[in-house]
Amino acid sequence: MKMEFEYREEYIKTSRGVQLFTCRWLPPNSSSPKALVFLCHGYGMECSGFMRECGIRLASARYAVFGIDYEGHGRSTGSRCYIKKFENIVNDCDEFFKSVSAEKEYRHKGRFLYGESMGGAVALLLHMKEPSFYNGAVLAAPMCKISEKLKPHPVVVNILTGFEDLIPKWKIVPSKDVIESAFKDPVKREEIRNNKLIYQDKPRLKTALEMLRTSMRVEESLSKASDAAILGAAWRLRYTGETDENVGIVFTDIVAWLNKFTAEGSNLVVEPLHETFSIGIEKLPSPPPTTKKHSIDRMALRSEWRKKEIPKPSLKTLASSFLPMEEDTPSKNEEEEFSTGPLSVLMMSVKNNTQVLINCRNNKKLLGRVRAFDRHCNMVLENVREMWTEVPKTGKGKKKAQPVNKDRFISKMFLRGDSVIIVLRNPK
């Protein structure tokens, strides 16, 4: 499959005076893009290499794709993977994305966010900050909730918080080997380990606390989100580390979702930016930006990868391919799990726009349609009817009152998976 695109690199200086690396993948032959897609990478990652696959595939589908390395990440300046304030990342992205949107040829194009892992939290916060500015978001395994098993005890958090201003950059937070569990393909796993722009050391104290606070903030915001805050969000499984075939399936789905919003007659509303708009971004002349035209033959590229000398995997590495996955990775084939397994009820509801009946804790039931979900049963629901039973209080000596059935309508809501008991198809 041949993919054509143009690639450019550029350094910018933000209003905070920080020098950041940016890159863009554009449709070939300077053709007008269908819309703009802004990339938000994950913790420790970078755009030019790690998110290259995403940029190429979307640019080949005639979308203009823009990436930025956060402060301290990739080729940007700053202490390696040190996040002093998560708000700085969000504001830097906001400035850069708006400066691109203000360019003459992009001023009236639709705007979409694409976020992976921690970048999913960045995308959600950007969308919540100005829901009308972005037309939608694609979220791949977003950092919107930390598992209770992984969440540190409140006492530990309080102790670490007391030291965060004294030793903010200390790499003292233990972490598991995410690359080992997230990348199933040994070739891609080795490629990631050899990428020197990707941070592979322990998280710094301040960084870990900022990420914990941000995930809790995002989780709380989603539980109270308005219609506009989660409108037009596509939740997808993480594609990185998967086989080329699975990557192709995921991006076919993503492109189809974007095409639905950008097709002629889709009535996509774009908030205009005036010509006098200025956000404080300064483009730096040095190092000079690069512009390259590319044409990639994926079959030839795959053949080249096979010719490369790859270290012989150890017995432990080979065995890990057949052993059960780590906690955060599905233990069986994801396609089978979503099509015929226990999650098939939710999948059918998303595909067919049918209702499901959800029995929750505290004797409450929800009847609604599922817009998005993950394998932990966290769900985005719409047109929800919440039902419960109350027993009115009576005075002493009086006869016990009869239970009263109550309900209310909620247009959109985020439901945490740990509150779900059972999910059934609507019997009606």
TrEMBL record:
Belongs to the snRNP core protein family. The keyword Nucleotidyltransferase does not apply. Keywords: Cytoplasm, mRNA processing, mRNA splicing, Nucleus, Ribonucleoprotein. Transmembrane segments: none annotated. CDD domains: Sm_D2. One of its GO terms (biological process) is mRNA processing. Coiled coil: none annotated. This is snRNP core protein D2. The lineage of its organism: Eukaryota, Viridiplantae, Streptophyta, Embryophyta, Tracheophyta. One of its GO terms (cellular component) is small nuclear ribonucleoprotein complex.
